Amino acid sequence: MTDVIAFFPGQGAQHTGMLKDLAADFPVVEETFREASEAINQDLWALAQDAPADELNLTYNTQPALLAASVAVWRVIKAQCPALNVVAAAGHSLGEYSALVAANALDFADAVRLVKKRGQLMDAAVPAGQGGMAAVLGLSEEQIADVCAAAADAGVVEPANFNAPGQIVIAGAMPAVEKAIELAKEAGAKRALPLAVSGPFHSSLMKAAAEEFGQALSQITFRAPEFPVHHNVDNKAATLEEIPARLLAQLYSPVNWTGAVESLRSAADVAVEFGPGKVLAGLNKRIDKTLTTVSTGDSRGVAAAIELIQGS
User: What percent of the chain has pLDDT over 70?
Assistant: First the structure.
């Protein structure tokens, strides 16, 4: 068996009809969605297969649906490769919860309830239309910091996702984000465009959700992970006692995906992206071309991942 780094995607990887062909081949996919649906009394499979994109993309719907999708893919591959040797893992934002479930540090049903709550609190933290996010391509981290500082007279605006070199997402109050977009273009950004999200995620404005989410986390029993899970807050593995605090801080702290991949790169030469889409595989290629990342959002991808894992 090949040593593998496990990566789990966050919001943006979801799409209507995700895992449809995989479910036809592997009953565990719909079984996993059924289990998740029972935890929050919501039909997540119907949501994932039939709901309009704008309904699926509501953060309090996206989060449990995408968690279920990633765990379903994990279960499919784990069943086919019982000796799967994950040497380390990380998830992009929401994906951190999928990683903890895969590492047996968090019960699946608890995770579904947690991320549903997380989505509701994130959605409510800032009134609709008053906060947002924007992707900026082609500027350095230092240039982004300067742009945010120059736009700060219009409100809070901060780096939220360091997704890859030259690919950074900012978040904050809408007037400040709009000003930062214009300043980024003036600074030479290849592109600077608003994202279709419902709030300024991973910015300090999310601290409004922290107290209530902290209470939800305090009611969960965590276990020591079966393999190291690197957290977004500092790109390090946490002790059992540190996990809740890392998850809480993640709510209002930037996701440094570039740092996550760099911190794990020495662990293995092969990575598997467990879940729909190919977002992380694309980012990983920009961060380190020598790391092979296989996406698993369909039967073809799963077959390729199994072949890679088995070293054939």
Answer: 100
* Cα torsion through 9, 170, 232, 116, rounded to 10: -60
C-alpha to C-alpha distance for 47 and 40, rounded to whole angstroms: 13
Identify the H or E element spanning 303: helix 299-309
DSSP E strand stretches across 190-276:
191-194, 229-230, 255-256, 270-273
Residues 6+ apart with CB under 8 A from 222: 100, 105, 106, 240, 243, 244
The answer to whether 136 and 183 are in contact (CB under 8 A) is no
54 contact partners, CB below 8 Å, separation of at least 6: none
* Cβ neighbours for 116, distance < 8 A, ≥ 6 positions apart: 40, 42, 60, 63, 64
CB 77 within 8 A of CB 302: yes
Query: Residue 231: helix, strand or coil by DSSP?
Result: coil
Q: Which residues are marked as active site?
A: 93, 202
User: In the numeric block, which tokens belong to residue 289?
Assistant: 């071309």
Q: Provide the residue ranges of all domains of the chain, joining segments of one domain with +.
A: 3-125+205-309, 131-197
Q: What is the CA radius of gyration of the chain?
A: 19
Residue located via tokens 């350095």: 140
Tell me: pLDDT of 312 over 70: no
CATH number, domain 131-197: 3.30.70.250
Mean of the pLDDT values across residues 67-87?
97
Phi, psi of 284 (to 5 degrees): -60, -35
Pairing mode of beta strands 167-173, 131-137: antiparallel
Q: Which pLDDT tens digit goes with each residue over 277-289? A: 999 999 999 999 9
Across residues 42-52, what is the average pLDDT? 98
Phi, psi for 87 (deg, rounded to 5): -90, -20
The verdict on domain 3-125+205-309 having CATH code 2.60.40.10 is no
Bridge partner list, 135: 169, 193
